[in-house]
């Protein structure tokens, strides 16, 4: 009676309605003395058949409009007729299939190469309150840059402490909608071994104030210094609500610089 077209759990809805009706039937009976026989018949029919629809359903807003008429007009058949089209319209609207999808598509983004596409202005501090011991800049130096201009990221763990959360892409410039998989790829070059510590590494993630996804190291101790290397990962953004997230770069327990270039982000469909 109040289970909408396309309900994903009609049996559960029916059980819930039945439960509500049992609760409704437990009310006292003194109130009945103020109604005549026809009104009581109408009210009883309502309680058996439509009260749950009124109380918990799509036409809740009109419940008291209707009940005031039922309890004050005599005869009530005319007023019932008057409300019929109003309620029918609301039931019809509730039964209309609507698109419940809240996943926004990823608009796509060109390869961030710091030459023709993407600039350092695409990045911002991950935490503007915590930047001591970190820096990011564009480098064109021939012994540093990978191709043309590149991003240079430096950390000093004697100042940053264990974790250096450095930068991420500005969500206002590169929106990464939630609840989809992304392929992240980029070239990088270590300018120094990050440290002799086994647990020193640079890390990448899709990360923002409200969520962190796919956090993983892209360098490890012993990686060759000075060579251009490639990293690639599939990162699932598993929250629909994740807001203000971007491609994040940081480091753990290390001092040194890394060059990053040719960053690709694209939707990954397995
Ligand atoms: Ca470049």
Overall average pLDDT: 85
User: Any idea of the CATH topology of the largest domain?
Assistant: Jelly Rolls
Percent in helix: 10-25%
Alpha-beta content class: alpha+beta
Strand order of the largest sheet: 1-4-9-6-7
Query: N-to-C terminal Cα separation, in Å?
Result: 42 Å
Helix and strand run: HHHHHEEEHEEEEEEE
What is the CATH H-level superfamily of the largest domain?
Answer: Galactose-binding domain-like
Specify the overall morphology.
Answer: elongated
Report the uncertain regions.
none
Report on the architecture of this protein.
This protein is an alpha+beta fold and 270 residues long. The chain is built from six helices and ten strands, in the order H-H-H-H-H-E-E-E-H-E-E-E-E-E-E-E. The longest helix is centred in the N-terminal third of the chain and has 18 residues, at 77-94. The model has no long low-confidence stretch (mean pLDDT 85). The protein has helices spanning 10-25, 37-49, 51-56, 63-72, 77-94, 157-160, and strands at 123-125, 134-139, 150-156, 163-169, 180-190, 201-208, 211-217, 228-237, 246-252, 255-267. It starts with 9 loop residues before the first helix and ends with a strand. It has a five-stranded antiparallel sheet with strand order 1-4-9-6-7, with no helix packed on it. The protein has two domains: 10-94, no CATH class; 120-267, Galactose-binding domain-like (Jelly Rolls), CATH 2.60.120.260. Bound molecules: calcium ion. Residues 113-115, 147-150, 261 line the site of calcium ion (CA).
């Amino acid at each position: 009676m109040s289970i909408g077209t396309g309900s994903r759990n009609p049996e559960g809805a029916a059980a819930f309605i039945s439960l509500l009706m049992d609760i409704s039937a437990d009310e006292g009976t003194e109130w009945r003395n103020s109604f005549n026989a026809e009104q009581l018949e109408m009210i009883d029919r309502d309680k058996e058949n439509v009260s749950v629809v009124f109380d918990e359903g799509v036409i809740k807003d009109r419940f008291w409009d209707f009940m005031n008429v039922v309890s004050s007009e005599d005869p009530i058949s005319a007023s019932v007729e008057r409300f019929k089209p109003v309620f029918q319209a609301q039931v019809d609207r509730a039964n209309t299939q609507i698109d419940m999808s809240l996943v926004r598509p990823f608009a796509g983004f060109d390869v961030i190469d710091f030459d023709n596409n993407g600039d350092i202005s695409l990045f911002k501090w991950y935490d503007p309150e915590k930047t001591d011991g970190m820096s990011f800049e564009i480098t064109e130096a021939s012994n540093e840059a990978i191709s043309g201009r590149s991003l240079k990221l430096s950390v000093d763990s004697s100042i940053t402490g264990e974790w250096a959360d450095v930068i991420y892409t500005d969500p206002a410039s590169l929106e990464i909608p939630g609840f989809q998989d992304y392929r992240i790829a980029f070239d990088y070059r270590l300018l120094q071994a990050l440290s002799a510590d086994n647990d020193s590494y640079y890390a990448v993630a899709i990360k923002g104030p409200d969520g962190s996804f796919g956090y993983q190291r892209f360098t490890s101790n012993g990686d060759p210094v000075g060579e251009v290397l490639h990293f690639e990962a599939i990162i699932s953004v598993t929250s629909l609500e994740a807001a203000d997230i971007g491609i994040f770069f940081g480091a753990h327990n290390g001092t040194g610089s890394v060059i990053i270039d040719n960053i690709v982000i694209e939707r990954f469909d397995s």
